[in-house]
Amino acid sequence: MTGSDPISDAVVAGSAAGELGDAINASKRKKRDRYSVFEAPTPAGVCSNCSTKLSGPVCHSCGQTADTYHRPIWDLLTDILDGLFGLEGRLWRTIPPLMLKPGKITQNYLSGVRARYVMPFRLYLTASVLFFLFVFALDGIGGGSDTPDVMDPEEVAAIEADLSDMEAQLAAAGVPEEQRASIARMAEAGVEQAQLPPDLPPEVQAMQEQANRDEIKRNFRQALLPEDYPPEDVAAAAGEDGPIAVGDGVTVDTNGLDELPLEVRRALVDRTDRIIDSGGATLAAEMQRWAPTMMFFMLPLYALLLAGMHFYKKGYFFYDHLVVSLHFHAFLFFLITGLSLAANIIPGWIAVFAGLGWSNWYLYRLHRTVYSHGRFTSLLRVAILDIVYSILLSFGMLGLFIVAVMMS
Known about the structure:
Layout: H1 6-14, H2 19-28, H3 73-85, H4 90-100, H5 104-111, H6 120-137, H7 153-172, H8 177-195, H9 202-224, H10 231-237, E1 243-245, E2 251-253, H11 262-277, H12 281-309, H13 318-342, H14 348-370, H15 375-407
Antiparallel strand pairs: 1-2
């Protein structure tokens, strides 16, 4: 180590990145002297942890702050929040350049300028906590109206005429009567549901919703567990291509599922029943539970993509790419959260295009700043990362859905 102040160098070297600034700032807070029966085992000016003589607010030997913590409880709560979110000023010195100067804090951090910024992993946790709290706990923004749309008599009459024509066409095409009856039954149930007035008594609405759920569960069971039903019922529930009618014109393709082992299909049907009975609440709860984990595993995958695109350049380590990944994902979380809030006052399509444009511009500038690429190679890398990461994210969402279904 070099420098004219070896004690300061020892403090910096012996403290975790970013924690020194918190400790010094905490020690500078004005505290009232309070009597406590718990006295320090060492005299003033000596570290109570390792008995080293202090030369500043932080012990240069063990890194402990020279603080007795004998102060009002709200001061301790402030320290806890500061430890979680870096509220002692570093968070506000980090977010503006993170959002507006792509790659600046990443390059600074990797170059050794670290104490003034929130640590990358803590920054990612702060951004992800705010994002998932906003999206899940607060149920997003602009959930829409809960009042159902009701068809007028002319629309109902037109749909009924179309249903009659469809039944005649199915008969002319040679579709079996049982299957035609199942299709007509589901279509009529959709029309009846659309005709229900919004001010029905809760008991009637509950009965109608339960009837619809029972119909959906029956069709799933008939298609996935044909061993438990007569052949004609199975044929009525699923055609040759395997789609299951789940009401309101919606179908679910079961291609391949009917080839799974019987016990697996029984477990899948049981979990599907629980999801349908809860109105999707159990599925949503499990997706909320596992979504942060899924995104956490995307961090090293993105870092691997960056490493693969720079394998020929010396001087870059996986740690460097991981810091880039942490900063980029923290930026994305902050961006999506902010645009979701802005979607209340601006059209949704503007928010979407702004998010896509800003994130791709950010990634372009990040390559220019951190990796010193040219304009064309930066654009090329942005395009490749967009495509590959979208594919990985799609597989991640599919895995999240499967895990959520099996855990429901």
